[in-house]
Amino acid sequence: MSLLNLHLKVWRQNRGQPGHFQDIEAKDIPDHASFLEMMDIVNERLIQAGQEPVAFDHDCREGICGMCSMQINGIPHGPEKATTTCQLHMRKFRTGDTIWIEPFRATAFPVIKDLMVDRGAFDRIQQAGGFVTVRTGAAPDANAILIGKEVADAAMDAAACIGCGACVAACKNASAMLFVSAKAGQLNSLPQGQPEKDRRTLAMVRQMDKEGFGNCTNQYECEASCPKEISVRWITKLNRDYAAAAMKEAFVGRQESSDGGE
Amino acid sequence: MKILSMSAVLDSLSRFYASSIGKKILVALTGAALVLFVLGHMIGNLLVFAGPEAINEYGHMLQTALHGGGVWIARLGLLAAVAIHIIATIQLTRQNRAARNDAYGQHKAQVSSKASHTMIWSGLTLLAFIVYHLLHFTVRAGNGFNGAAYKTELHGETVHNVYKMVIDGFSWAPASLFYIIAMVLLYSHLSHGVSSLFQTLGLTTHRTAPVFKALGHAYATLILVGNCSIPVAIWLFGYGR
């Protein structure tokens, strides 16, 4: 084990107030610490010195909950591919390095404090259509609906999205298309998702627009930064599904008006 | 009832345009039309290397197609495509800027090209170029191209001497230079735009993504080389002078 001396530039901000970068010298950081453990050490020292610790989001610390965030040296979750901040280790840095630590920046993700942002916009998009409606009662038989292996695998790939918001943070437009496309695409791929496919697609995209995320310009920074390596082909599918749903809505309308009305 | 359905359709369509993906699909569709136009335009222009007769006849054919209506159908169609393409992208860009108010101290692009980051600027410069280009050869303002010196006889008819306009137009260094700069920007714009439109229209797959990307670069290069060959041949190598 060796110890690292690092220069941190950490974003400090209180909700609704302008923020600034604080220079923090992080000395004697063990290189086998995770990035969050490094932050814990820094915070302990701040507390001992009578200063306010840096607020940051974290929960499972094993790369599956999607709670940790942080833009590290300009990249969400830091420079390692397919790695969340909690799984990033300090051995990836060299002693003497300067590390920029910022919150995920997007108008739709307002800063709560320091490095913590409110990702409630993602929840509201999910509530708009990221579900299948099921009857209550006994659980249906496991294999009552046949699903092709390829379809199940693809849906599982989309379901790997942990909703961390790295895609929004990486995008120059703060677009949420990778998240929304993974969540909509997962259900739109499966037979259980078919009955509500059009309604879901329209509702989720409209909520996404309403939350103030930017628009996709097909640069695929989201895919490069995604800790779960969600493919931008889900965005292709969302574009396709949305176009079909919007055209059906415009020219076909609701089912019952086709034989009633006039 | 009919009016009601009509307004329901219009409501849905205006909702489609108001949405992020709806606008992007319109940008992609108009982009596709312009991409195809650029190729046809280039092939026609390259007739300048086939001699005065060939390009003058081509120009005459364009102006007289459908009793002179063809050229106006094309012009209005292109104008609509350009207008939709630009208005929608400006609206999208403004939304994109608003989506991140506080800039990052550090923000690294890992995979995206310079061209993809400068689409709005390459696009708006091209708009300025298109205005200049139309004044140059279509309206023929500020030059003598409307005069009798630029008319010629072809199969017993008096037609525009397109060949002489092109040769004289590109003999002036600043014009040639501006055309070449504009074509480099068009190369940049197409190198991102062509493959991008397949993605926005929902057509890209895992298999075709690298194909579309390579195709986009090849197409952009083809247009760059083809279009630049004309000012380069005339201005630098004295073709036709």
Task: Report on this structure.
The complex is a heterodimer of chains A (262) and B (241). Chain A is 35% helix and 13% strand. Chain A has 8 helices and 7 strands. Chain A starts with a strand and ends in an 11-residue tail after the last helix. The model of chain A has no long low-confidence stretch (mean pLDDT 95). Chain B has 9 helices and 2 strands; from the N terminus they run ααααααββααα. Chain B is globular. At the A-B interface, α6, α7 and α8 of A face α1, α2, α4 and α8 of B.
Beta-strand segment tally of chain B: 2
**End-to-end C-alpha gap of chain B:** 68 Å
Instruction: Give me the strand/helix succession of chain A.
Output: EEHEEEEEHHHHHHH
What strand order characterises the main sheet of chain B?
1-2
Return the CATH topology of the largest domain in chain A: Fumarate Reductase Iron-sulfur Protein, Chain B, domain 2
Main pleated-sheet profile of chain B: 2 strands, antiparallel
Q: What is the CA-based Rg of chain A, rounded?
A: 22 Å
Query: What count of helical segments of chain B does DSSP give?
Result: 9
Which bin fits the share of residues in helices of chain B? over 70%
Q: Which class of secondary structure composition applies to the elements of chain B? A: mainly alpha
Average pLDDT over all residues of chain B = 95
Sheet with the most strands, sense and barrel status of chain A: 5 strands, mixed
Q: Report the helical percentage of chain A.
A: 25-40%
What global shape of chain A is seen?
elongated
Architecture per CATH nomenclature, i.e. the level-2 architecture of the largest domain in chain A: Orthogonal Bundle
Distance between the termini of chain A: 79 Å
